[in-house]
Write a structure and sequence with these properties.
- The chain is an all-alpha fold and 403 residues long.
- It contains 14 helices and no strands.
- The radius of gyration is 32 Å and the shape is elongated.
């Protein structure tokens, strides 16, 4: 049974780990994200170590019979502690979360140390990747080992189910609510595995066996663990989807701003930031779309600043009258008027024709650039770019690949 279900759970764990792996370096200070990545990694390792072929391979390479038992179960205890770290940081203030997380991690390491000591006291035998528990059921040291592991496992799963259910009711994000409830369901299902393992200890003391319940135990363990992993995957994948959507919007915005940027560049090439002077070791950062979009918006702002002394109130009034007659209102009107002001300002700067001081005015969309949020500012620039009919031909520009 376990050789059928473990590979499936291993694939789910690997998927979750890979989803988080890319963001771990950029979220080094986010303890919850790091702990969640550790949950997927440790879960995957626990399944990998328990597969029969890997079990036999580790016995051969490490020279210790059945060494996969403490390795896999140690990973399980560690991931139970890491799951509590995730929930603690999601549901508690940072200082309290740090204190509770240290307690959970300390408890986990203590249990793992106890398991290693008790495993070392077992009588060596031949490999038993399928019926290890049944084979050692008569051993007093293994009864102690199993009691310690099942106790820690059961307590961890009970706390997990209870904490997830409580936190799900408080979360404002739908993906987190759904995911935590699936985790709670998975933790509840795994209690079937705990019940059988506790039964193994009691049965051995009574001189009987629970051989017929082994398939049920592995099914509960694997199905419960799979549900738990899927539950953790739900908010993870939702975050990734949101990140991809945001990145796509950045690429689309970068391309959408190009006509507006070219309008300014045709008159004032000096607005382009001298990226070729950047240290080669730092140049890779400037290939990121977030930096490229930020650069483009700054260069456009510099262009707006350069033509600001050439903004004529008469141009603005005429443009507003024209576009109001076309039925434009609100932000659409201000964007269309600003596009006309930019074209007129660029032409006036080229001729060095400044309006009289009393005729100076501001850009029609100036109020939209005061929110302080970068994407709001870019959205305002995109509205202007869509209204910009001018396509500069004075200066030929071949856009760099990394720009």
């Amino acid at each position: 049974m376990k050789d059928l279900l473990h590979p499936v759970s291993l694939v789910v764990a690997t998927l979750g780990f890979l989803c988080l792996l890319r963001d771990v370096p950029t979220r080094r200070r986010d303890a919850a994200s790091t702990a969640l990545a550790a949950v997927f990694l440790l879960s995957g390792l626990s399944f990998l170590f328990s597969i029969t072929s890997m079990w036999n391979y580790l016995d051969h390479v490490l020279g210790t019979v059945n060494i996969s038992v403490p390795l896999a179960q140690g990973c399980v205890v560690a991931l139970l502690a890491c799951q509590q770290v995730v929930l603690t940081y999601w549901g508690s203030p940072p200082e309290a979360a740090r204190r509770r997380s240290r307690w959970w991690l300390g408890a986990g390491f203590t249990v793992i140390a106890g398991l290693l000591v008790l495993f070392a006291l077992l009588t060596p035998s031949a490999p038993h990747p399928i019926d290890f528990t049944l084979y050692y059921a008569h051993d007093a040291w293994y009864a102690t080992y199993l009691t310690l592991y099942v106790t820690a496992y059961t307590i961890g799963e009970l706390f997990l189910a209870r904490s997830c259910w409580r936190l799900a009711r408080r979360s404002a994000r739908r993906s987190v609510r759904v995911g935590l409830r699936i985790v709670a369901l998975g933790a509840t299902v795994t209690l079937g595995y705990s019940a059988v393992r506790i039964g193994n200890v009691i049965a051995s003391a009574l001189g009987t066996s629970l051989t017929g319940w082994e398939a049920f135990a592995w099914a509960c363990g694997d199905i419960g663990a799979m549900l738990t992993l899927i539950g953790w995957l739900v908010p993870t994948i939702a975050d990734q989807a949101q990140s991809i959507q945001y990145r796509f919007k950045q690429y689309r915005s970068y391309r959408g701003l190009r006509p507006l940027w070219q309008a300014f560049y045709s008159e004032a090439p000096e607005i382009e930031l001298p990226i070729h002077r950047v240290d080669p070791d730092q140049r890779r950062r400037f290939r990121r779309i977030s930096i490229r979009l930020y650069r483009r918006s700054i260069e456009i702002r510099d262009g707006r600043f350069m033509i600001r002394p050439y903004l004529d109130a008469a141009v603005r009034d005429t443009s507003e009258t024209h576009h109001r007659a076309r039925g434009l209102r609100g932000q659409e009107l201000s964007a269309a008027v600003t596009a006309d002001q930019i074209l007129a300002g660029i032409a006036a700067r080229a001729e060095d024709s400044r309006p009289a001081p009393e005729q100076l005015t501001e850009f029609a969309d100036s109020e939209r650039h005061t929110s302080g949020r970068p994407m709001d500012d870019i959205d305002a620039l995109l509205d202007v770019a869509r209204h910009l009919a001018h396509r500069p031909t004075q200066t030929r520009y071949l856009e760099r690949v990394f720009a």
